[in-house]
């Protein structure tokens, strides 16, 4: 939890290079994460503002010229760190006390003195993806921590996009964005109404559709690097739905050697992306 300051509340000057807060000090926004039931709450509309907080998500967003920025709240220390890292900021921060950000996010959010409201990033259509793209598809994975960790891993492996659905998936804001640690700026979320139809369309475009299934006969190593390809991940416990399985070209499992035969879905995604990114052995 962020340490609370004992100084009087009210507007304060920003550090050099970071600008100055708005006259009148902090004013709560009606576009905060609480509007959707908190930063990890239910999905809002596709055009609703995105709430980012914490060092990596905010710094990455401020450095992304494709982001439309609305509002930056920062503590004195947070604004000083931003100015040191980025120089002149693309948006003037409002200097606030930590409890002002806590009021928007809740006391358990690790915001590190930074809160940013932005527009959602545009996403490419399935027909606009590169011919050699590597994608992920998420089949009703609803935990924002898991999805955020998957986004972060996808950014590390150069994934071209993550296909997700309008329903049964968390919105790209709050907890998900914090868990992604800036990955949302590098991996677009491609939202579709029906995952099976999207997989069929990708198959018609030549994508190999690889479903991850702990009970599959084929080991992941036998699949080998494929391009273009889409790796399909199911929710923990439920796994892939039957219709989703039917739309895959191959079902593969990670070959475990220990006593535990399952992993958190974000860890499984990391292992799978590594296995599919290695060059073929001669």
Automatic annotation (TrEMBL):
Domain of life per record? Bacteria
Segments of this protein annotated with the region Disordered:
1-49
- Which regions are flagged for Basic and acidic residues bias? 28-37
Q: Which GO terms describe its molecular function?
A: RNA binding; RNA methyltransferase activity
Q: Which SUPFAM superfamilies match?
A: alpha/beta knot, L30e-like
Pfam families for this protein: SpoU_methylase (PF00588), SpoU_sub_bind (PF08032)
Biological process per Gene Ontology, one example term: RNA processing
CDD domains in UniProt: SpoU-like_RlmB
Q: Which UniProt keywords apply?
A: Methyltransferase, Transferase
Return the InterPro entries for the record: Alpha/beta_knot_MTases (IPR029028), Ribosomal_eL30-like_sf (IPR029064), rRNA_MeTrfase_TrmH (IPR004441), SpoU_MeTrfase (IPR001537), SpoU_subst-bd (IPR013123), tRNA_m1G_MTases_N (IPR029026)
GO CC terms:
cytosol
PANTHER family, alphabetized: 23S RRNA (GUANOSINE-2'-O-)-METHYLTRANSFERASE RLMB
**Alphabetical list of NCBIfam families matching this protein:** rRNA_methyl_3
| Name under which the protein is recorded | RNA 2-O ribose methyltransferase substrate binding domain-containing protein
Originating organism: Methylobacterium oxalidis
Upper classification of the source organism reads: Bacteria, Pseudomonadati, Pseudomonadota, Alphaproteobacteria, Hyphomicrobiales
């Amino acid at each position: 939890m962020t340490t609370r300051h004992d100084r009087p509340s009210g507007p304060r000057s920003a550090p050099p290079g970071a600008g100055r807060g708005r006259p009148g000090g902090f004013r709560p926004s009606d576009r905060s994460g609480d509007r959707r039931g908190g930063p990890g709450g239910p999905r809002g509309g596709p055009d609703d503002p995105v709430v980012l907080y914490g060092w990596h998500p905010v710094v990455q967003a401020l450095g992304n010229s494709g982001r439309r920025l609305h509002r930056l709240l920062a503590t004195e220390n947070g604004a000083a760190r931003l100015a040191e890292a980025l120089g002149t900021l693309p948006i003037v921060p409002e200097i606030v006390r930590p409890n002002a950000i806590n009021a928007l996010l809740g006391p358990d959010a690790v915001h590190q003195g930074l809160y940013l409201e932005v527009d959602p990033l545009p996403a490419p259509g399935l027909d606009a993806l590169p011919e050699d793209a590597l994608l992920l598809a998420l089949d009703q994975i609803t935990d924002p921590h898991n999805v955020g960790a998957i986004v972060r891993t996808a950014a590390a492996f150069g994934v071209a996009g993550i296909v997700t659905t309008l329903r049964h998936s968390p919105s790209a804001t709050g907890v998900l964005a914090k868990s992604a640690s800036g990955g949302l700026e590098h991996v677009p979320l491609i939202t579709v109404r029906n995952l099976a139809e999207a997989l069929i369309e990708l198959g018609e475009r030549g994508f190999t559709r690889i479903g991850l299934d702990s009970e599959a006969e084929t080991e992941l190593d036998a699949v080998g690097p494929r391009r273009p390809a889409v790796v399909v991940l199911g929710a923990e416990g439920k796994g892939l739905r039957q219709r989703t399985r039917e739309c895959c070209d191959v079902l593969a499992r990670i070959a475990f050697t220990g006593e535990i035969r399952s992993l958190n879905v974000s860890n499984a995604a990391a292992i799978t992306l590594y296995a599919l990114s290695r060059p073929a052995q001669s």
